[in-house]
Design goal:
By secondary structure, the protein is α/β, with parallel strands linked by helices. The protein has helices spanning 21-32, 61-64, 70-86, 104-113, 122-128, 150-163, 254-267, 310-327, and strands spanning 2-3, 14-17, 37-40, 58-59, 95-98, 118-121, 138-142, 146-147, 167-169, 182-185, 199-209, 219-221, 228-234, 237-241, 275-286, 293-297, 300-304, 329-330, 335-337. Helix 1 packs parallel to helix 6 (150-163), helix 1 packs parallel to helix 8 (310-327) and helix 3 packs across helix 8. The radius of gyration is 20 Å and the shape is globular. The protein binds flavin-adenine dinucleotide.
């Protein structure tokens, strides 16, 4: 961290473009700091054109350490505190990682690459997730992790922005160069006109419903090709996710559907009787190094590349941007100045 000589400390208005998870947190922290904030979003309130609409919403810095750089864990841990401060109702009841006996080597590899867990035997798994009784011999329990439901938390974030005096304009498609003052560009993949290294990494998901299984927290099943997660959404609904495929094609392939549903069936056979409510896919905005970036060019600031960690990182990235604008503080790991 260091202090830059740039001074944006006046009270110039702040425009945020994109009301997905990155832009919503930016608008929230700037509005709370007393700035005049306008958040522009090209979609309507449902945000169906955003990647955030399709996400799992897991806040899992310890699990993500398996495949991420340390900076993701550092920012993720800071974000957990911000989620707790601003949304105390967020469930922080941990996540559970399990594997079938044949995938034991991958399970141990996951354990070696991560921290912040407690090993559970079959009895302890039954205690925290009674529906999984007899299904797995051991598990890893990451007690400090949380999760949010994107389609519920995004409208809550938008309401909170308004409660701090921020304005939100839906159906408002704007470009950073059209606007005066401080502009925070959170357009996700649509920002490729300015950040041409961005690519989309497809994630597919399936929403199912059954009364036969009850889970209190996300469960990850270690699998040689991808980790399946089952996230409880309440009222008997579960999100099964997510693939990670280097393509920008839309939709869910037959192969992915077979793998997601087949893996869920091995977590609990009752998932075989569940009703399928929805198939969906989203494109994770990613830079070549899969790390987030805050790119600063005078009053134009672009926050992008949140890849598979948008919900995990958005609060900490918003705090860094606010500290830059208010105090000139630079975080060398994520900020790039023109
Ligand atoms: C299947 C799946 C599961 C995932 N699970 C998780 C998870 O469990 N935990 C986690 O942390 N992350 C997860 N992610 C990753 C996360 O969803 C992304 O990192 C995050 O959504 C990116 O957010 P964003 O705000 O940068 O982009 P977006 O959500 O795409 O938001 C950009 C917004 O900008 C708007 N916009 C674009 N151009 C304009 C314009 N010109 N004017 C106005 N508005 C504009 C768009 O309409 C959009 O609403 C998952 C992703 C997928 C696909």
């Amino acid at each position: 961290m260091y202090q830059s000589s740039t001074n944006l400390r006046g009270q110039s208005p702040v425009s945020v473009i994109g009301a997905g998870i990155a832009g919503a947190w930016q608008a929230l922290l700037f509005a709370q700091s007393g700035r005049s904030v306008t958040l522009h979003e090209r979609s309507d309130e449902r945000l169906t054109q955003s990647t955030s609409y399709w996400a799992g919403g897991m806040l899992a810095p310890w699990c993500e350490a398996e495949s991420s750089e340390p900076v993701i864990v550092r920012l993720g841990l800071r974000s957990l505190n911000l989620w707790r401060d601003y949304f105390p109702e967020t469930p922080f009841n941990g996540s559970l990682v399990v594997a079938h006996a044949r995938d034991r080597a991958d399970f141990e590899r996951f354990a070696r690459l991560t921290s912040g867990y407690q090993r559970l035997d079959a009895l302890a798994i039954r205690e925290i997730e009674p529906s999984l009784e007899g299904r797995f011999r051991e598990g890893l329990f990451y007690a400090g992790e949380g999760h949010v439901e994107p389609r519920k938390i995004l409208p809550e974030l938008h309401a909170r922005i308004r409660s701090f005096g921020g304005r939100i304009e839906f159906d408002s498609e704007v470009e950073p160069d059209d606007i005066e003052g401080v502009v925070i560009d959170c357009r996700g993949l649509a920002a490729r006109d300015k950040q041409n290294e961005l690519r989309g990494v497809k994630g597919e998901l399936i929403l199912i419903e059954t009364d036969e299984v009850e889970l209190s927290r996300p469960v990850r099943l270690i699998h040689p090709r991808f980790t399946l997660y089952v996230i409880p959404r309440g009222e008997g609904r579960f999100m099964l996710g997510a693939t990670s495929i280097e393509t920008e094609s839309a939709g869910v392939s037959v192969r992915s559907a077979l793998e997601l549903l087949g893996s869920a069936y091995t977590v609990h056979p009752a998932f075989g009787e569940a009703r399928i409510l929805e198939f969906g896919s989203g494109l994770r905005p990613a830079f070549p190094d899969n790390l987030p970036r805050i790119a600063i060019d005078n009053e134009k600031i672009a926050v992008n590349g949140l890849y598979r960690h948008g919900f995990l990182l958005a609060p900490a990235l918003a705090e860094l941007t606010l500290h830059y604008v208010e105090r000139g503080t630079i975080d060398n790991e994520v900020m790039q100045c023109a």
